[in-house]
Amino acid sequence: MTIRSYKGVIPSFNASVYIDESSVLVGDITLGDDSSVWPLVAARGDVNYIRIGERTNIQDGSVLHLSRATKSNPEGYPLIIGDDVTVGHKVMLHGCQLGNRILVGMGAIIMDNAIVEDNVIIGGGSLVPPNKRLESGYLYVGSPVKQARALTEQELTFLKVSADNYVLLKNEYLSDDVI
Question: InterPro entries recorded for this chain (predicted)?
Answer without folding.
Answer: LbH_gamma_CA-like, Transf_Hexapept/Carb_Anhydrase, Trimer_LpxA-like_sf
